[in-house]
Design brief:
The structure is a homodimer. By secondary structure, chain A is α+β, with helices and mostly antiparallel strands. The first copy, chain A, contains nine helices and ten strands. The longest helix of chain A is centred in the first third of the chain and has 19 residues, at 68-86. Chains A and B meet through strand 1, strand 3, strand 6, helix 6 and helix 7 of A and strand 3, strand 6, helix 6 and helix 7 of B.
Chain lengths: 343, 343
């Protein structure tokens, strides 16, 4: 795709981090989708990513239509550098594309003893509370917080009741969706896992007004505004679609997708040791909370992904055959030798 | 309570802003509770609030056990001043008390053409996903974003499915709670609106694992860590209780309640005019989204509170008789003339 070796390796690392952490929907299964966007000339393989505005603790970055997998680590690195000097760094990005899992970028801050934050807007699949129209993406938020002897706290979640990837799993199994995940094209409650293909919509975290969907709607909106309105990307229903066959929205008010990153140096608040001792205590206390009947234990954010990473480090990553076929097609098309470890 | 006239007026303004915006649970109805905390020597009426650590874009503040209603605006003001110089300002606060509505403090940023953020931890009423134990408070998040000709975007919400105030309304009406709001002391689903008095718990936004309660749990945890672990306040199940008759937790790991505030100068990212034009477009587009059947219109965060403020500005604030009686008792006890406009 015209990527430098460095960029290609970085993009591969970001995609693999999703597979390693068990977020299969955002790993190598997406590679062919990125290639199709490049073929449709919506992704620039060799972007000139640049800072277009900055202050001591902020920057706005133009991704030059690059792979989000490459633009996002660039931007997070700027946030970290700003934090080294100003205590915190905050970077809003325009003119980018899908950036993989938010958690990868947030976790870049950990080795610098910083809290990392990453979010992105995405093409509109979500109907706000009271709306039949799809206005927001699944707009995820990731927050990574370092600890001492305990592993870090890593939250990484879509601001919807269920992520699109969970619907896809039900589609494959031909099973219905639980009530509260989706609505149909008329805005009525639905349990049809295929409803997005029939002009239906995902619901914000909270599902309905009585269960706080206005809060999930607010969260998704905040992600949209921080990522796209602060940077000059395209927001709300105008966010560019991921599937290359979907036409771009008309009258887009900005450039490409938007992201938002934050880095906060722990010792800009407290000594690192005091903070880490408290975080270890926080994590240990929450892990030891009395579980409700039928549950073994209480988890902290990041536990399931970390446990999956341990398993996959030894056992490898299971890849469904349709994805293997897609990867073979991509390899053939791009003239790349297909790794014989993938089978 | 030993407050200066300035502090007393500020505290009254913050409480009244809740009543004006229709958040009756956080307005003058709370005044007698603050007085009881002062009587129990848990609130210091004349605190020496001070910055204990800072960097160009951050500060940690010790509230000296002051009224949160006074400590929070002090801290938000520091965040705004940091943002004026560094682009953004981030302030974590320890040794404080209940700060009223988060939205008041976040909205302080608006007149400076900044985005404002406010959050606080609170005494543990919420059971994490899979837990029978209460580990977190309702830990609200407020984000205020300026617009141009449109009114600002103001989100202000507890990270639970329903705030405690909504349960109290049902208790007065002797009505059950909707499924998904609370669990009983065994960790089983419940619709008993009085369940918190029977060792039950509120549920995180999302209600249960299938509907994303692990996301609400993560959000509440992030608020707890930013507010209390970053500052050195008491976190998780050790957060000090609001009712003065509830004993303080044993082995508290920090001082008092914690808050976290942020201010981001719009023009540290884009010119104010570009941003405001885009925000006006964002707000107008979302307000004009096609409503689902049975709904008049789609709202943006802050619309209901602003509409209530307009009504109450002309019609006054309805106060239930039990609160009027409590206010009379407080006035008598403190030797203050009771306003004859309250009846």
């Amino acid at each position: 795709m015209g990527c430098s070796d460095t960029d290609a390796a970085l993009a591969a690392t970001v995609l693999l981090s999703a597979d390693m952490r068990g977020i299969d929907s955002h790993g190598v299964a997406r590679l062919s989708g990125y290639v199709r966007l490049w073929e449709a000339q919506r992704i620039n393989g060799s972007p000139a990513i640049k800072i277009v505005h900055e202050s001591p603790s902020t920057a706005v970055i133009d991704g030059d239509a690059g792979l989000g997998l490459v633009v996002a680590p660039f931007a997070m690195d700027i946030a970290i550098r700003k934090a080294q000097i100003a205590g915190t760094g905050w970077v809003s990005v325009r003119n980018s594309n899908h950036f993989g899992i938010a958690g990868y970028h947030a976790m870049m801050a950990l080795e610098h003893d910083m809290i990392g934050i990453a979010m992105t807007n995405a093409s509109a699949l979500v109907a706000p509370t009271f709306s039949v129209e799809k206005m927001l993406g699944t707009n995820p938020i990731a927050v990574a917080i370092p600890a001492g002897t305990q592993p870090p706290f890593v939250a990484d979640f879509a601001t919807t009741t269920a992520a699109n990837g969970k619907l896809e799993i039900l589609q494959r199994k031909n099973e219905p969706a639980p009530p509260g995940w989706v609505q149909d094209k008329e805005g009525a409650a639905s349990t049809d896992a295929n409803v997005l293909k029939k002009q239906g919509a995902l619901l914000p975290l909270g599902s309905d007004r009585e269960h706080g969907s206005h809060k999930g709607y607010a969260l998704g909106s905040i992600v949209d505004i921080f990522s796209a309105v602060l940077s000059g990307a395209s927001y709300g229903p105008w966010a560019p679609p991921f599937p290359a066959y979907v036409p771009m929205p008309e009258n887009m008010p900005g450039q490409g997708l938007g992201h938002f990153f934050g880095a906060m140096r722990i010792d800009a608040f407290r000594t690192g040791q005091e903070f880490k001792d408290n975080m270890d205590n926080w994590i240990t206390r929450f892990r030891n909370a009395t579980p409700a009947p039928g549950n073994d234990r209480v988890l902290i954010p990041g536990d399931p992904e970390r446990e999956m990473e341990t398993i996959r480090t030894t056992e490898g990553i299971p890849v469904v055959s349709s994805v293997v076929d897609e990867l073979k097609n991509v390899a053939e098309k791009m003239g790349v030798k297909f790794a014989d470890t993938i089978r």
